[in-house]
Specification:
21 strands, Nuclear Transport Factor 2, Chain: A
């Protein structure tokens, strides 16, 4: 048998090449159109600052009968912390805690780090427990600011003093200081002039006192009254006139503040209810029902009850054979009864209209022995003068303030 070699036909070769090209195209397409792989982004944060610290404060006012241990328990102070505090207080600083003190418990988050006990506007106690326990007293620095004010009476002392910028507390103190010589209800008149030098305490820019009068002057009906503050070794803080005599007297000139007199001392007055001539042996002060009435001098109550047309009445016996009588009261103050000792300025009752009275007012009488005297005009006994050993010191202080007043007037008039 003769052998032979088979050769592919053109058609087979053409199909082969076409198939090869097709496969290559599919491969190229799959490569070129391959989806882009997703990029995974990882964000890493590094904290370069500490997280914020939250502070809070819990306040508590000490009540009567409360102890620190009870308060600590109520405020959930840890027992071991409370023990450390009490153990550390070797000087018994915390024993001064009293009702009315304000306690501040300071926290960082839930952790207690200090306790502040505020005694008043200046003094406080700080208990620091942030690291170890420490207890210390803190006293703020005080700055005294001195002010000088002047005015003239056009309407009333109270309104005109407010008008020139004098604080209300200083106005009331001014009237009290001169209240033994001047009845600010009856004596004050248009054209009277007043001057006052007073100091006010400030701490950290805040006012912490209502002020205290250093020097005061009142010109009433052309008569000059002076009051100089001075710390007497025997009497403490007092106010004296230019001669070193105490402005304080044994009696206040009036038993009420800043009201008006409705009826004066008159031995021939016609009674408004009985319509008969009956001596009016005292002074009537018209005031709102419930206005406090003060004892005008130290003494002992010898009668407190209801008596005839006087209604609710109090009669006080004072030293040196003086007596004062108060009528038509709405009621007596708590604890007022026969035999009780009272001090000058103490509230003994309240204005009313009991007895024979046409409206709420106080009928006030002033007696020396059994003789009725006009309380508006009677000369009142004085308290002790400046200590003799300090008279030169007093005069130096008085002259200093008189010079301040003169300099002020010169600038105002210049």
């Amino acid at each position: 048998m003769i052998g032979f070699k088979k050769t592919p036909s053109k058609l087979v070769l053409s199909v082969f090449f076409i198939s090869l090209i097709f496969v290559l195209l599919i491969y190229v397409d799959s490569v070129l159109n391959k989806p882009i792989p997703e990029e995974k982004i990882t964000i890493s944060m590094s904290l370069t600052e500490d997280p914020p610290v939250f502070k809070n404060k819990v306040s508590h006012e000490v009540n009567k009968g409360e102890s620190l241990s009870v308060i600590f328990e109520e405020k959930k102070v840890p027992l071991n912390t409370a023990y450390k505090i009490f153990n550390f207080d070797e000087d018994n600083i915390l024993s001064s805690i009293k009702p009315g003190d304000l306690m501040e418990f300071n926290y960082i988050g839930d952790d207690l780090y200090s306790i502040k006990i505020i005694k008043d506007d200046v003094n406080s106690i700080l208990i620091d427990i942030s690291e170890d326990v420490s207890i210390k007293k803190i006293k703020k620095q005080i700055q005294k600011i001195t002010s000088l004010k002047q005015g003239e009476i056009k309407n009333s002392f109270y309104m005109d003093a407010l008008r020139v910028g004098i604080p209300e507390s200083i106005i009331m103190d001014f009237a009290y200081i001169f209240g033994w010589d001047i009845d600010f209800i009856f004596d004050v008149r248009e054209g009277d002039k007043f001057s006052v030098i007073y100091e006010t305490d400030y701490s950290d820019g805040e006012k912490i006192s209502t002020g205290d009068i250093i020097f005061a002057e009142f010109i009433n009906n052309n008569q000059r009254y002076i009051a100089q503050r001075f710390y007497d070794d025997d009497q403490g803080k007092q106010y004296f006139n230019e001669n070193g005599m105490n402005v304080k007297k044994g009696f206040l000139r009036a038993p009420l503040d800043f009201t008006r007199i409705s009826d004066h001392f008159n031995p021939n007055r016609k009674h408004p209810i009985l319509h008969t001539i009956r001596a009016h042996k005292g002074t009537d002060y018209a005031a709102s029902r419930g206005t406090p009435i003060q004892a005008t001098g130290d003494g002992v109550i010898i009668f407190a009850g209801v008596k005839n047309g006087c209604g609710n009445e109090i009669l006080i016996r004072h030293a040196n054979n003086y007596q004062t009588r108060y009528c038509h009261m709405q009621k007596f103050n708590k604890g007022i009864k026969k035999g009780k000792k009272v001090v000058q300025g103490e509230t003994i009752g309240y204005v009313g209209s009991t007895g024979l009275a046409t409206g709420p007012h106080l009928h006030y009488e002033f007696m020396i022995g059994n003789k009725h005297t006009d309380p508006v005009k009677v000369k009142l006994p004085s308290a002790k003068p400046v200590n003799r050993d300090q008279i030169e010191e007093f005069r130096g202080l008085l002259n200093l303030n008189l010079q301040k007043l003169n300099n002020y007037n010169s600038k105002e008039n210049g």
